[in-house]
Design brief:
By secondary structure, the protein is mostly helical. The chain contains 20 helices and twelve strands. The protein has helices spanning about 20-35, 50-65, 80-95, 105-115, 130-140, 185-195, 210-220, 250-255, 260-270, 285-290, 305-320, 320-330, 340-350, 360-370, 380-385, 390-400, 410-420, 425-440, 445-455, 455-470; strands at about 5-10, 35-40, 75, 95-100, 145-150, 155-160, 165-170, 175-180, 200-205, 230, 235, 300-305. A three-stranded parallel beta sheet has the order 1-2-3. α1 links the parallel β1 (about 5-10) and β2. α9 crosses α11 (about 305-320), α13 crosses α14 and α16 (about 390-400) crosses α18 (about 425-440). It binds one RNA strand through α4, β7, α6, β12 and α11.
Length: about 475
RNA sequence: GGCCCGUUCGUCUAGUGGUUAGGACUCAUGGUUUUCAUCCAUGCAACAGGGGUUCGAUCCCCCUACGGGCUGCCA
C-alpha cells in the first residue's frame, strides 16, 4: 500500500470532545500503523463560531493524548483563494453554474411540495442559461449561488466499514458550492482541501456518509482520484443520544481533570466501535497501533460507559510503576507532595495505586501520608471510647516507645503483644490504631502505613488521637 | 415525505446455516485479605417483530417497527 495520508479536521467551535478524540485516534492509529501521515486541519471557516482559544485547546488535548500530527497545521480559512480558483474552473468547464433562484423562491417551492406530498427537488432552472442572459440578470442586480451540475447515473463507493454504498444521482440536488456572498460551502471545501492535501483515506464520523456522494461528485468533476472512505460509528451518551454538550462529561480535558491517564482514555476509546478480535481489553498505545484494523470496526453506534473507563483505568493504575504514576500526577497537580522527596512519594503511591481507579483516587488516598495534622472525626468516638479504643492505642503507644528498631517485624510483634494483653483479635486492635494514625477507617495495610510514616510520626499521631478522643 | 445507515445480555462486544449464543464492564452472592479496595469463584442477563428460503435459521432474502444521519445559501 502506498503510504496513507489521513487527516483529522475539527472545527474550532469548541473543545475537543470524546467523539472527536476517537475519530482522531483511529486516524492516528491507521497512519502510524502504515508509516503514513496524520495531518491536522482546522476547519475555521465559520468565522462567527470559530475561536483561536479552541484551536489551542484542541492542540493541547491531542498532545496530551499523545497523538502527534505531521507537518504544519492547516487552516482551512487560508485556502480560500484555492477554493475560489476551483469554483471558476468548474464554471468554465461547465460542471457548475450560476443559479439565480432566491432563498425565498426555494422556500416556497419546498412548502408547496410538502403540501402536495411531493418530493422536493431543486429545480434546474438556470442550468443551461446562456452567458448573455446571465450577465443581464447580474446587471439587474440579481444575486446568484453556484451549483454543481449533478450528472445522470449513480454514485457509489466502497466504505472500509460500511461496505458498498450506492446512491442514485437523481436523489441528489444540484447542490450549492458557492453562496451568494461568494463563500464556498462545506461539501465543496472539504473535497477541495482533501485534494490539496493529497488525502488518501478519509476516516470520519458516519454522520458524513450521506455527504460522501456529493463530495465524490466534486472529485469527479475535477477528474481527481476519489480517496478511500472509512466511516466510524457515532458515540452516544447514556441516553443513547448523540454525545453533545448536554451530556455529563464530553470534554477530553474533563477526563484529564478527573484523573484519567491518556493511556486509559485511549484504551477505552479504542474499544468503542472496534474490537481487537480477541478477549483482551487492556492495551498500550503501541499494541493498538499493531492491532488496529477497519475489519473489526463496528457499524453500530456505541454508548460511552464511564464505568468501563473506570475499570480500565484501575487496571492501568495497577500495572503502572509508581514512578510513572508520580509523573502523571505531577502533570495534573504540580504542587502535589511538594514537601516530600520523590522516593517517599513513590512509596506512598505503591501503597495506594492498587486500590485506586485513577490518579485522583491515588491523590485522595495518599493524603494521609502527606498531611501534617490528621483530621480526627467525631464519627469514630464510639470505637475509641465504647470499644476501648483509647486504651488499646495507649498501650500500643507505650509498647512502641520502648522499641529500638522500626520495621515490619517489630510492629507485628507489638501488635501481637497488645492482642494478648487485651485478649482480642487483630481486627479489634487494628481499627482504633488505623483511625489514630490516618483519621479514617480504611486504607492501605496498617503495618505498611506505620512503617512508611516512620516511628516518630506514628507516635506523634497516636498521641494526638489520644488527646482528641479522651 | 424522500434517500442512506443501523438493531446480539442494562452497556461494550464475539459468533456461526445445526453452539448449553462466548467474553468484558455493571449488578448480586460467596471466598481470600487486619479495614477499604484488589483478587478469585458463582450467578442474573441478549439474537427487535413478522414472513419467507431451508431438513434446520441469531446468521441468507423480504416486509414492519424502532433508532440515527442526510435532505440548508450549517459544518
Amino acid at each position: 500500500m502506498k503510504k496513507p495520508v489521513v487527516r483529522f479536521a475539527p472545527s474550532p467551535t469548541g473543545y475537543l470532545h470524546i467523539g472527536g478524540a476517537r475519530t482522531a485516534l483511529f486516524n492516528w492509529l491507521f497512519a502510524r500503523q502504515n508509516n503514513g501521515k496524520f495531518l491536522l486541519r482546522i476547519e475555521d471557516t465559520d468565522l462567527e463560531r470559530s475561536k483561536i482559544e479552541y484551536v489551542d485547546q484542541i492542540k493541547n488535548a491531542l498532545n496530551w493524548l499523545g497523538m502527534d500530527w505531521d507537518d504544519d497545521i492547516i487552516f482551512q480559512s487560508k485556502n480560500n483563494s484555492n477554493h475560489q480558483k476551483v469554483i471558476k474552473e468548474l464554471i468554465q468547464s461547465g460542471d457548475a453554474y450560476k443559479c439565480f433562484l432566491t432563498k425565498e423562491e426555494l422556500d416556497n417551492l419546498r412548502i408547496q411540495a410538502d403540501k402536495n406530498k411531493e418530493v422536493f427537488r431543486v429545480p434546474r432552472t438556470y442550468r443551461d442559461t446562456s452567458e448573455e442572459k446571465q450577465n443581464e440578470l447580474i446587471d439587474e442586480g440579481r444575486s446568484y449561488t453556484i451549483r454543481l451540475k449533478v450528472p445522470e447515473g449513480i454514485t457509489k463507493f466502497k466504505d472500509l466499514v460500511f461496505g458498498e454504498i450506492i446512491v442514485d444521482n437523481k436523489d441528489l440536488d444540484d447542490f450549492i458550492i458557492s453562496r451568494s456572498d461568494g463563500s464556498p460551502t462545506y461539501n465543496f471545501v472539504v473535497a477541495i482541501d482533501d485534494i490539496a492535501m493529497d488525502i488518501s483515506h478519509i476516516i470520519r464520523g458516519d454522520d458524513h456518509i450521506a455527504n460522501t456522494p456529493k463530495q465524490i461528485l466534486v472529485y469527479n468533476a475535477l477528474k481527481k482520484n476519489v480517496p478511500i472512505f472509512a466511516h466510524l460509528p457515532m458515540i452516544l451518551g447514556s441516553d443513547k443520544k448523540r454525545l453533545s454538550k448536554r451530556h455529563a462529561a464530553t470534554n477530553v480535558q474533563e477526563y484529564r481533570d478527573k484523573g484519567f491517564t491518556p493511556d486509559s482514555i485511549i484504551n477505552y476509546l479504542s474499544l468503542l466501535g472496534w474490537n481487537p478480535d480477541s478477549n483482551d481489553e487492556i492495551f498500550n498505545i503501541n499494541e493498538l497501533i499493531k492491532l488496529f484494523n477497519f475489519k473489526q470496526v463496528q457499524k453500530k453506534s456505541a454508548v460511552f460507559d464511564e464505568k468501563k473507563l473506570l475499570w480500565i483505568s484501575g487496571q492501568k493504575m495497577k500495572e503502572m510503576t509508581s514512578k510513572d504514576i508520580l509523573k502523571e500526577i505531577l502533570l495534573i497537580d504540580k504542587a502535589w507532595g511538594k514537601d516530600h522527596n520523590n522516593s517517599y512519594l513513590e512509596s506512598v503511591i505503591s501503597l495506594t495505586k492498587d486500590r485506586s481507579k485513577n490518579l485522583i483516587d491515588i491523590i485522595d488516598i495518599s493524603d494521609i501520608f502527606l498531611i501534617n495534622e490528621v483530621n480526627y472525626s467525631d464519627e469514630f468516638k464510639s470505637i475509641m471510647s465504647d470499644q476501648n479504643g483509647t486504651m488499646i492505642i495507649k498501650d500500643f503507644l507505650n509498647a512502641v516507645k520502648i522499641e529500638e528498631s522500626w520495621d515490619k517485624q517489630t510492629v507485628e510483634k507489638v501488635f501481637e503483644q497488645i492482642m494478648n494483653q487485651h485478649d482480642i483479635g487483630l481486627g479489634k486492635v487494628m481499627k482504633p490504631l488505623r483511625i489514630a494514625i490516618s483519621g479514617i477507617s480504611y486504607g492501605p495495610g496498617i503495618f505498611d502505613m506505620m512503617i512508611l510514616l516512620g516511628k516518630d510520626l506514628t507516635i506523634n499521631r497516636i498521641t494526638n488521637a489520644i488527646n482528641f478522643y479522651k
